C-alpha cells in the first residue's frame, strides 16, 4: 500500500508506541493484585493487539487493509460525581522496583493511553490516506475511552484527584464569553 513519507513516519512512531503498550500490558496483567484492575486490563488488551496488528498490516500489505476489523471500545461512564474522589494516599516514586503496585500500574497505563490518544489525534490530522486517517481516528477514540475508564478506576480507588472548580472562577469565566446570536438555527451574519 502506498503511504506518503510523513504518513510512514507517523505510522512508524505509532507502531512503536503500540508495541510498548502491548508489552507493558502483558506484564501489568500478571502483576495486578486488584481483580477489578486486572479485569479492566484484560478487557482492553485484545483491542490493543488488534490495533497493533492493523498498523503492521498498513506497513506490510500491498492493498488497503480492512479497517472495519478495528472498532473502538464504547465509553460507559460509571462515576456519579465528577468533582470529588477518595482521599489520595501520599506516595513517592520507588527507585528499586521488582513488582509494580496497582497504583503504579494504573498510573502508567493511564499516562500511556492519554499520550497515545494525543499521538493518534495529531497523526490523523496529518493523513492524506482516508483509510489510514479513519483507522487512526478510531484508534484515538479507543485510547481516549480506555484512558477514561482507567481514570474512573483511579478516582474510585483514591489514586487520582477530583475537585470542584471554585465558584468564583466559574463565575468569572462565564462572564467573559457570550453566545453568538442565532436566527432560525443559523448564526446571524455580519452586516456588510
Structural description of this entry:
By secondary structure, the protein is mainly alpha-helical. The chain is built from five helices and two strands. It has helices at residues 5-31, 35-60, 102-125, 130-157, 167-176, and strands at 182-183, 186-187. Strands 1-2 form a two-stranded antiparallel sheet. Strand 1 (182-183) and strand 2 (186-187) form a beta hairpin. Helix 2 (35-60) runs antiparallel to helix 4 (130-157). The longest helix has 28 residues, at 130-157.
Q: Low-confidence runs (pLDDT<50, min 5 residues)?
A: none
Largest sheet properties:
2 strands, antiparallel
Distance between the ends: 50 Å
Within the largest sheet, what's the order of strands?
A: 1-2
Based on Cα principal axes, name the global outline: flat
- What is the oligomer described by this structure? single chain
Rg to the nearest angstrom? 21 Å
The residue-averaged pLDDT reads: 92
Please give the share of residues in helix.
55-70%
Could you give a quick summary of the protein structure above?
The chain has 192 residues and is mostly helical. It has helices spanning 5-31, 35-60, 102-125, 130-157, 167-176; strands at 182-183, 186-187.
Amino acid at each position: 500500500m502506498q503511504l506518503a513519507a510523513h504518513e510512514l513516519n507517523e505510522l512508524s512512531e505509532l507502531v512503536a508506541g503500540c508495541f510498548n503498550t502491548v508489552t507493558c500490558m502483558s506484564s501489568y496483567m500478571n502483576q495486578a493484585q486488584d481483580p477489578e484492575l486486572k479485569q479492566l486490563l484484560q478487557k482492553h488488551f485484545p483491542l490493543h493487539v488488534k490495533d497493533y496488528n492493523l498498523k503492521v498490516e498498513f506497513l506490510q500489505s500491498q492493498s488497503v487493509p480492512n479497517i472495519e476489523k478495528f472498532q473502538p471500545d464504547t465509553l460507559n461512564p460509571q462515576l456519579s460525581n465528577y468533582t470529588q474522589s477518595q482521599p489520595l494516599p501520599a506516595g513517592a516514586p520507588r527507585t528499586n522496583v521488582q513488582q509494580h503496585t496497582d497504583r503504579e500500574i494504573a498510573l502508567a497505563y493511564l499516562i500511556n493511553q492519554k499520550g497515545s490518544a494525543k499521538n493518534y489525534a495529531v497523526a490523523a490530522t496529518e493523513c492524506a490516506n482516508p483509510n489510514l486517517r479513519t483507522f487512526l481516528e478510531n484508534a484515538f477514540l479507543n485510547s481516549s475511552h480506555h484512558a477514561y475508564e482507567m481514570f474512573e478506576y483511579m478516582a474510585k480507588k483514591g489514586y487520582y484527584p477530583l475537585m470542584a472548580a471554585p465558584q468564583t472562577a466559574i463565575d468569572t469565566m462565564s462572564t467573559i464569553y457570550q453566545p453568538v446570536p442565532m436566527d432560525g438555527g443559523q448564526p446571524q451574519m455580519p452586516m456588510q
